[in-house]
Structure formats: C-alpha cells, structure tokens
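re: the backbone from monday

yeah here it is again, tokenized this time
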C-alpha cells in the first residue's frame, strides 16, 4: 500500500491538454502567496489569467500588470460573475479564507484553498459539506506535501520495506513572532493551525489515518507551549510530534525504515542514511528550485484535476482529507497540560 503513496515526479513542464484548449484561472487575494501561485500559472501554457480580486486595488493592480491578468476587482463575487473562471486560487487573509471559499464553492467553481481551510474541524467540515453539495473539485494548498526531496526520501525508505516510524519537529519562536506583529494578535493563539499545520500534515501524509494520539503539553509562562506526542497510525507506523514554542525555529522530519532513515533539517534539505554507513544526499527536482518548493507540482496537480474533471491524486489533500489533519491538531491541543514544578531546590 505504501508504494502507492509515492508519486512519480517529473522535471518536465506541464501544459493544458490540447483537447481542453485553455483554463480560465482567477486569483482571490494579492499578497505574497498570490504572487508565487501566479508565477507558476504564468509558466503553464494554456492558462489564461482572467481576474484578480483584492480589497486593496493597488496590490492587485501591481500583480495584474506583472502577470498580464485581464481584470482587477475589489470584490470576489464580481470577479466570479464577470470573469467566469474555470478555477480559482484562494490566497486571501486568514480571516477571510472561510467566507471567500464558501462563496466560490457555492458557485460550483473548482478552487485551490491556501491553508488553513478553517480554524476548527467544524469550519473545515462546513466547507467540505458545501463542496460535496455542489459537486465541486477542491484542494487545500499544503505545498510541503509536494516537496520532491521528501518523496525521494520516502521512496528510498520504502525500497527497504515498510516505514516504521515518523518523527516531526516543529519549533516556533512564538514570542518573537508576536513582537513583530506581522499578523493580528489572535492569529498567534491559533498558530498550530495557522502555520504548524504544515509539519503536522506531513505526519498524516506519510503515516496515513490516525488511530490514537497520546502525550503531554506544557505552557511556559511568558512564552509558548511545548508539545510531545506519540501517534499510532492505522496502517502500522508510529509517529512522534515534538514542538517547542520559543526555541530555535525550524521544521524537521525523519522517516525510519528497516536499516534506513531519510532525514530532513530543514525540510528543504535531506539525506538518506543506511545502517551500512552509506549516506546519500537528496537533491530536489529542478522545478523545486525554479519555483517555491512543492508549489509547481501542487498547482499542476490542481489544474490537471480541473482539466480532466477528476480528483487530484496523492499527495493532494481535499477538504474531506484536510478534516483529518484538523482532527489531529485538535487532539494535540487537547493533550493533558503538565504543571511546571517551581519548587526551589
């Protein structure tokens, strides 16, 4: 079963199939992620960028000029009415993601939703129900699922037998983040969903469905939380999640197999280590160098699904699947809180 979970990666550029002709793509939002998605779209023959919507017309106008987008809007609904897109890439603010996604899904338009698709299982489930009611193809954008280097490492482990264990470290200097005030204050209270979801979702991508979560968390006064969790997956591997908020930042991943381990720190760099002492450096595919890692493969997976009118294959995560990652996050939030022993020695 696990061999089916490793995609065949190609370094060749994809294009819209001739029998489709073109795909009319619109973008909601005009921030950093919108720009990076637009860089991918512009590189794909057959993609026609028909509209961009953002409350700030200045940033949208800038991207429209840079990427030759046909029309700029300040209202997403107007963009959908007038541009008639075949697909929408949603990159709006965290607070606006659910209402904008609800609007697009209610119109029956396929959409790629930048994470997080809601800040609770219920919010994500509501979007999933809306997608199902309207028969809408959808994907949640979690580009680390598409890191070529991680898939090369998975394949190396699977060649030796099944995966035994998965370790994810996700350390976040939350106090430093709060002091910068790049986002609204409430978002830092939801940081497991707002950002750490990238690391937590990798556990599910590699391990599959979760059966049991156990462990502890500890809140440090004037700091952040520390999580230590053991996760049992239905297909057999064991997972481990460690996160210290207010330590040195960084996401790391280890995939352990029989006599082999794939190790990544940071996630963009990795190697395979064998019990014979052999050590092989993993190299990303060229498309993960030309574009933000994982983004090209992710966006192509979505657009190809729209073009063929079929669900995107693994490692894609749609709203139904993303609910399971949200459930894992809520399980981590609900771990028993350990008190700090402040007694003097």
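seq for it, each position gets an aa:
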């Amino acid at each position: 079963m696990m061999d089916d979970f490793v995609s065949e990666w190609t370094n060749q550029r994809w294009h819209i199939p001739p029998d489709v002709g073109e795909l009319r793509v619109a973008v909601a939002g005009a921030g950093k992620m919108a720009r990076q998605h637009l860089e991918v779209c512009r590189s794909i023959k057959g993609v026609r960028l028909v509209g961009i919507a953002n409350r700030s017309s200045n940033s949208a106008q800038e991207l429209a000029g840079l990427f030759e987008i046909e029309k700029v809007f300040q209202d997403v609904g107007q963009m959908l009415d007038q541009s008639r897109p075949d697909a929408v890439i949603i990159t709006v603010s965290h607070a606006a993601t659910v209402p904008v996604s609800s609007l697009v899904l209610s119109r029956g338009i396929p959409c790629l939703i930048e994470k997080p698709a809601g800040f609770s299982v219920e919010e994500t489930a509501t979007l999933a129900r809306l997608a199902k009611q309207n028969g809408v193809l959808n994907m949640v954008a979690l580009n680390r699922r598409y890191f070529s280097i991680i898939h090369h490492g998975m394949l190396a482990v699977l060649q030796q037998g099944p995966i035994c264990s998965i370790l994810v470290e996700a350390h976040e200097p939350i106090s430093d983040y709060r002091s910068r005030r790049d986002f609204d204050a409430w978002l830092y209270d939801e940081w497991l969903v707002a950002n750490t979801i990238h690391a937590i979702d990798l556990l599910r991508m590699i391990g599959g469905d979760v059966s049991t979560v156990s462990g502890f968390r500890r809140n440090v006064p004037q700091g952040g939380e520390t999580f230590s969790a053991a996760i049992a997956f239905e297909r057999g591997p064991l997972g481990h999640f460690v996160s210290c908020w207010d330590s040195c930042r960084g996401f790391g991943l280890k995939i352990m197999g029989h006599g082999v381990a794939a190790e990544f720190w940071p996630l963009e760099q990795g190697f395979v280590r064998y019990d014979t002492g052999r050590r092989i450096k993993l190299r990303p595919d060229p498309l993960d160098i030309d574009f933000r890692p994982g983004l090209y493969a992710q966006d192509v997976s979505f657009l190809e699904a729209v073009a063929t009118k079929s669900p995107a294959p693994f490692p894609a995560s749609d709203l139904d699947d993303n609910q399971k990652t949200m459930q894992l996050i809520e399980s981590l939030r609900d771990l028993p809180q350990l008190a700090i022993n402040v007694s003097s020695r």
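Residues 2-143 form a domain with the Rossmann fold fold (CATH 3.40.50.720). The radius of gyration is 21 Å.
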